[in-house]
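Reopening this ticket.

The earlier resolution said the output was attached, but the attachment link was broken on my side. Pasting everything inline this time so it's all in one place.
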Amino acid sequence: MGNTASTPSPASPVRHVSRRQRPVSPRLTLDEKFDAFHIDHEEHATSQKVLSPDDSQHVSAAETEAYVRELLQDSKNRLGLSALSTNNPSAILEKPSTILKDTQYFNTAIPHEGSPVTNQRSSGRCWIFAASNVFRIAIMQKFDVKSLELSQAYLFFWDKVEKANYFLESILDTLDEDVDSRLIGALMAGPVGDGGQWDMIVNLVSKYGIVPQTLYPDSWNAMNSSVMGRLLTTKLREDGLRLRSLACSSSSTEKVAAAKEKMMQDVIRILTLCLGPPPSATEKFTWEYYDSSHKFKTVSLTPLEFAETTHVKRFFSLTNDPRNPYNRLLSVDHLGNVWDGRPITYVNVDKIVMKQACVAMLKKGLPIFFGSDVGKQSNFQKGIMDTDLVDYELGFNVKLGMSKAERLLTGESAMTHAMVLTAVHLDRDGKPVRWRVENSWSVSAGTEGYFVMSDEWMDEYCYQAVVDPSVVDREIRDVLKQEPKVLPLWDPMGLKHRFVDRSHCESKAGEVDTNVHFGSLVKRLRLDYHFLWGHYDESSDSRVSPPGIIRCYCYYCALLESSLLIKLSMR
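Inline output:
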């Protein structure tokens, strides 16, 4: 059948075509940029042997062994071997001078910080905690209270409900996509994850309001969300396939809508049983409290009335994404929670513009919700984020020279965690030196829950700051009127804040001690933060490769539990 020979010709064997033999584009690719980078630093190479193209494609055991012998002839490398192979390299190479200069002293700060320090525990709710910590400042001032914590679980409940609906509507909205397309894969990867973005908060507060935590405290599943999250994810993936199949068949619109309603009822049932029934968004609640003079007070408000002080709709996101043009509005395809709600948008600006806006916010006494890649050059116990913190070049004689844009392009960096800026230290010229950061990992992390972020770290790893329109020029405000450039769901700007803090541990089989902080457990198990660090998809319990999937930085949770179970079994 056909003209193709049934037996391959011996004269034309099928052979592998190497990259070097394939046609190449004259355009300088990212790989070529890195080739140039390594060529620029060839002076650091110990071996001067020139390899032929064929030799360079394969690993030679003999040459590797020869290089190792040559490497260890240097006394510095032998010292490095002794130190680095028996300890956490990041701890060994940490610079004391950096730790000493990153002090908790600031000359520009908001008048009153929120209290108490919050703890998101074993959940990916950092964005809800950061937003709640911003909101409570205005509410504390209105009601004259010294301490207030808002209910993160309340927003968490409604976010899960809305995300489930958003996912199912997205499935119906993408029927023209192949089921194995990258977009459908990205939707299925995290249909109802814990993470989120600022505009999602705006949607939730605008529709449901907020309540004090005393009226709807965290349940066990709010503090430890992975089991509930996996159940919801599995159910929604199944429902997504069923709904897609039903919609692609000859079924009526009414039948599809009825099936979706039943699916949503299943989601609400799971959430209600795991988190508890939330207060009504439209009925009044009674809140009893003491004011700053310790006078007993009581108010009766709806959640929407309680949220009026926040003016949440005023604020918008600045972002610094050097891959895209500045003064341009960015959005993300199929990223959101409330269907037909406020879309996810970022006004992309130069980092200097973003920092100037942050300084102006703090001078006005306003805290700032911001998003960053918290795991880079950070010490969680000391609460320091500084690009000069760990000197890898000293220990390994390697340079790490990627730009911010290149880190985004390669999946090396993305927004992973939301926190709050409450102060900045300015030099004599009014330029930022360091920033004070309110985290949501309890008082055990950093200095009583607060971190110090160097200005250089902010340049490299801060991607988002939520600001009031009054602190930017009209030119920046007018960007909000543009038709946005829509980024794909798997873009780093589409990755929702999903950092998880493991602040509980299993102390005994079947028991959970929520008072034991992650850091103290790590010390007991003789583990370290950096060893436990990695990319983890909580929905499928597997390692994943960025940037093709919404990421969750909680791989250390699984490692931590495994290590603990091993130690318990050895007792």
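Reporter confirms the inline version is readable. The chain is about 35% helix and 15% strand. The chain has two domains: 29-94, 108-487.
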